[in-house]
User: Fold this.
Amino acid sequence: MNGTVQPKARRVLALPLGALALALAAPAWTQDKSSAEGIAEYRKMLEDGNPADLFEAKGELLWKTRRGPKNATLEACDLGKGPGVVKGAFVELPRWFADAGKVMDLEGRLVWCMATLQGLDAAAIAKTPFDRGEMANVTALATYVSTASRGMRFALPQSHAQERVMYELGKRAFFFRGGTHDFACATCHSEDGKRIRLQDLPNLTKNPGDGVGFAAWPAYRVSAGQMWSMQFRLNDCYRQQRFPYPLFTSDVTTALGVYMGVNAEGAESIVPSIKR
Assistant:
């Protein structure tokens, strides 16, 4: 008997945590529930232990710690609401910054502050893989800053001419088709009711709803065991389109952020969320 029971036990224990949670939840599903509702329940089960909390804590520590050649904190960094103000900044980004002379998203602005206030090398950070070194620190900082606006609604400014230019650039980039598969962002995200495998694909040409699309990143990816910022997410979209990776905080990724963010006006931020 032991020879038949023990191997089964080992197979159960070897299941990944997420798969085990999903399996345990399965009996609660009914035929009336959609796949999307099942995935939503799975995410809800994991929310209480969202590892994003650890990244938020790391980001707060980095924000307040003296670092770099200038031995300074980031507490004087102006994210659009005034020096050091974090709450409410995320839901108004990307936006125009007069001191930098350009439209910046959250990560671009953070790297700019790390360079100007702390003396860190922005070019070197941009070349670092997302989950390594200072780039990982940028992700943690973005998690900290964005979490401070959780529950607030997106209202990206469009008063400056360059903000409007970036919106139009982002729109063109969103619908641009290319690569070996002739894909565009719009291939997956310009119609209602689309999905890939069991994943619903939000329509990002309009407000897809609270906590969906732009309003859900940064997020912790359970399948990858990583915290993904919006820049990281966009890079992965380019990978799936078989496009070359864009440069970190490039004009095109920032413009896509403007396009999606403006379209998401009024949506509630649920950052940091948790994804499959």
User: Anything to note?
Assistant: The CA atoms of residues 153 and 268 lie 4 Å apart. Residues 2-47 form one domain. The beta strands are 95-97, 102-104, 194-196, 199-201, 219-221, 226-228, 273-275. The radius of gyration is 20 Å.
